[in-house]
Design goal:
This protein is mostly beta strands and about 110 residues long. The protein contains no helices and eleven strands.
Length: about 110
């Protein structure tokens, strides 16, 4: 099982980024996927979840309306579209898959600063 995040980087407040998580080694379309994030000195926290079909999503309250989780099962890839970014969104963002056990990607850094 491999999960590889990409798309992070520096961005100004109010800006946008799109994160990607490329998955391999399992039946991607059968597995619900999540995004988590971890800011420096803080615990890792849930950001968003999407079911295997993409038909249902859930969000952390503080990102609802600004972030959109999506997936393309033909490409074995999950996305996180982030708009109206705030300095408090600065963190390492991780994708997560749970089936027989939990699997994490290596993370991608998002830094929101002027």
């Amino acid at each position: 099982v491999q999960l590889v995040e990409s798309g992070g980087g520096p961005v100004q407040p109010g800006g946008s980024l799109k994160l990607s998580c490329a998955a391999s080694g399992f039946t991607f379309s059968s597995v619900g996927m999540k995004w988590y994030r971890q800011a420096a000195g803080k615990e890792r926290e849930f950001v968003a979840h999407i079911t295997g079909t993409g038909g249902s999503t859930k969000y952390k309250a503080s990102v609802k309306g600004r972030f959109t989780i999506a997936r393309d099962n033909a490409k074995n890839t999950m996305y996180l579209h982030m708009n109206s970014l705030k300095p408090e969104d600065t963190a390492v963002y991780y994708c997560y898959a749970l089936f027989s056990t939990g699997y994490w990607g290596q993370g991608t850094q998002v830094t929101v600063s002027s």
